[in-house]
Design goal:
Blueprint: E1 7-12, H1 19-31, E2 37-43, H2 44-50, H3 54-68, E3 75-81, E4 95-99, H4 112-119, E5 125-127, E6 136-138, H5 140-168, E7 174-178, H6 188-200, E8 207-209, H7 226-247, E9 254-257, H8 267-277, E10 281-284, H9 288-300, H10 302-317, H11 319-323, H12 340-344, H13 348-355, H14 366-373, H15 376-382, H16 384-392, H17 394-415
Parallel strand pairs: 1-2, 1-10, 2-3, 3-4, 4-7, 7-8, 8-9, 9-10
Antiparallel strand pairs: 5-6
C-alpha cells in the first residue's frame, strides 16, 4: 500500500485548469516549514456533469507537478466511488474514497452481526480510552444495535476494496472509507465499533471520513456548536489512536473532514487538536476552486465579468433544478438572492465582494455563493466560451485560487495563524 503523508489536502478542480495554482499553495506551505500533500479529487457525479473523465484529472495533476518541480508526493482520488462506478477510475487513481453511505442501515446477511458481537467482547461494558475523560459504557444490546446499522456498510467497503486490490494488480493505492453522506453523525463509540469492523474486514484504511455534528454546507462556514465539534473531533482522534493499537490498523490512520473547505470557525479547534496529539489530517475541499474561478473572472472585468454575471443569471433562473441534488448540504434563502437584473448593474468589486468568502465583509452574500457553488453545470454547458476565458484570465484566477487555498485554509489549519 501507499503510505499517505501526515497532512493531505483534497483539491477539486472541476474544469482541470487550476492544478498549478493549487500546487502553488502547497509550495508556499513547504516554504513555511509544513508539508501538505495535494490529493486531486473528482467524483463520478462531477465527471458526468462536466463531461470529463478520470484520465483528465491525472493528466492535469501530473502536468502541474512537472511544471512546478514538486518533489513531494501527490495523489489522484477516485472520489466517492462504489461498485457501480469504480472501473473508470482504476487506471488513473491511487487514492480511493470508498463511499458506503448507502449501506448504512441496510440489513446484513446471515449471522454477520452476532458473529461480530461475539468476536468483540471488549466492546461491552466500561471501556476507558486514553484521551477521553469518561469511560464509554455500553451493553451487548448497544453494540448489537450499532453493528446492525453499520455492518453491511463495512461489508460493502470490503467488497469494493478487494475489487480495487484485484484490478490494480499490485499497484499501490491509499484506501479511504467515507460515511459522511448520511443523515446522522457517528458518535465516538460508534466510530470505535466501525473501526473494529473495518479491521475485521481486512481493509488497511489510512483515512476515515465520519459525519460530524453540525452542518457542512457547500462553500460556506460551519453551522453548529463549535465547542461540541471540538470535543467530538478530539474524542474521535483518541478513538482512532486506540483502534490502531487494539485492532492493528495502519499507524498513520487519520480523520478525513469532507466538505471541509470554508469551515473557518472550526479550523482553530482542529489545529489545536493536531498540535496537542500529533495526529494527521486529510481535509477535502468542496468546489472551492470553481468559486475562485468565478471570482477571478469577475475581478478580471470585461468579458470575464460579463460571463460571471451570465452564469449567475442562468443559475437563478434554474435554481430549483440546480439545488435539488444538493438539498441536504445547502441552505439558501431565495429572498436573499438578488435579481439577475440587479447583478447586471454591479461593478466588478461589488460582485467579487458578494461571493468571495470573507464572512465579516458586509457585502458578502452566503446565499449567492451557495447557489453559484452548485451552478457549475451552467459553466459546463457554456463549453469553449467558459474554458477560453479561464485561459485568458488565468493570471487573475490563479492568484485567487492560490491565495484562497493557502491563506484561508492551509495557514489556519496547519500553521495555526
Amino acid at each position: 500500500m501507499l503510505t499517505i503523508e501526515k497532512y493531505s489536502f483534497g483539491v477539486g478542480d472541476r474544469f482541470a485548469h487550476q492544478a498549478k495554482a493549487q500546487l502553488a499553495g502547497c509550495l508556499q506551505a513547504i516554504n513555511e516549514g509544513v508539508e501538505v500533500v495535494p490529493v486531486w479529487n473528482k467524483s463520478h457525479r462531477e465527471h458526468t456533469t462536466i463531461g470529463s473523465d478520470p484520465e483528465s484529472v491525472r493528466r492535469a495533476a501530473d502536468e502541474a507537478v512537472a511544471a512546478l518541480g514538486w518533489r513531494k508526493s501527490h495523489y489522484v482520488d477516485a472520489d466517492h466511488i462504489n461498485m457501480g462506478n469504480v472501473e473508470g477510475f482504476l487506471p488513473h487513481s491511487d487514492f480511493f474514497t470508498i463511499d458506503v453511505a448507502d449501506g448504512i442501515g441496510a440489513t446484513p446477511e446471515g449471522s454477520a452481526v452476532t458473529d461480530f458481537v461475539a468476536a468483540h467482547p471488549e466492546l461491552v461494558g466500561s471501556l476507558s480510552i486514553p484521551g477521553i475523560e469518561q469511560p464509554f459504557e455500553s451493553t451487548e444490546g448497544y453494540v448489537m444495535d450499532v453493528a446492525t446499522k453499520y455492518i453491511q456498510a463495512v461489508k460493502d467497503a470490503g467488497q469494493i476494496y478487494r475489487h480495487i486490490l484485484d484490478r490494480k494488480s499490485g499497484a499501490p493505492f491509499v484506501p479511504e472509507v467515507s460515511m459522511d453522506e448520511t443523515d446522522l453523525p457517528q458518535t465516538p463509540p460508534e466510530l470505535l465499533i466501525i473501526l473494529a469492523a473495518l479491521a475485521d474486514e481486512g481493509i488497511p484504511l489510512q483515512t476515515i471520513a465520519p459525519k460530524f455534528t453540525g452542518r457542512f454546507n457547500k462553500g460556506v462556514d460551519y453551522v453548529g456548536d463549535v465547542s461540541q465539534f471540538e470535543k467530538e473531533f478530539n474524542d474521535d482522534l483518541a478513538v482512532i489512536a486506540f483502534a490502531i493499537e487494539k485492532y492493528g490498523l495502519p499507524a498513520n490512520l487519520k480523520l478525513s473532514v469532507h466538505s471541509g473547505s470554508d469551515k473557518f470557525s472550526i479550523y482553530a479547534p482542529i489545529h489545536r487538536a493536531l498540535k496537542r496529539t500529533g495526529a494527521g489530517l486529510h481535509l477535502k475541499t468542496a468546489g472551492t476552486t470553481w468559486l475562485e474561478e468565478i471570482i477571478g473572472l469577475a475581478e478580471a472585468d470585461g468579458e470575464g465579468l460579463v460571463l460571471a454575471k451570465d452564469i449567475y443569471a442562468e443559475a437563478i433562473a434554474n435554481v430549483e433544478a440546480l439545488c435539488a441534488p444538493y438539498a441536504a448540504v445547502i441552505d439558501i434563502d431565495r429572498e436573499r438572492l438578488p435579481a439577475a437584473t440587479e447583478v447586471r448593474e454591479w461593478s466588478s468589486a461589488q460582485l467579487v465582494a458578494a461571493i468571495r468568502h470573507v464572512p465579516e465583509c458586509p457585502e458578502f452574500n452566503a446565499h449567492m455563493r451557495q447557489l453559484l457553488h452548485v451552478g457549475y453545470k451552467i459553466a459546463a454547458q457554456m463549453g469553449d466560451r467558459y474554458l477560453d476565458l479561464l485561459e485568458r484570465c488565468e493570471e487573475t484566477i490563479a492568484k485567487n485560487v492560490t491565495l484562497n487555498l493557502y491563506d484561508r485554509h492551509i495557514v489556519p489549519l496547519f500553521l495555526g495563524r
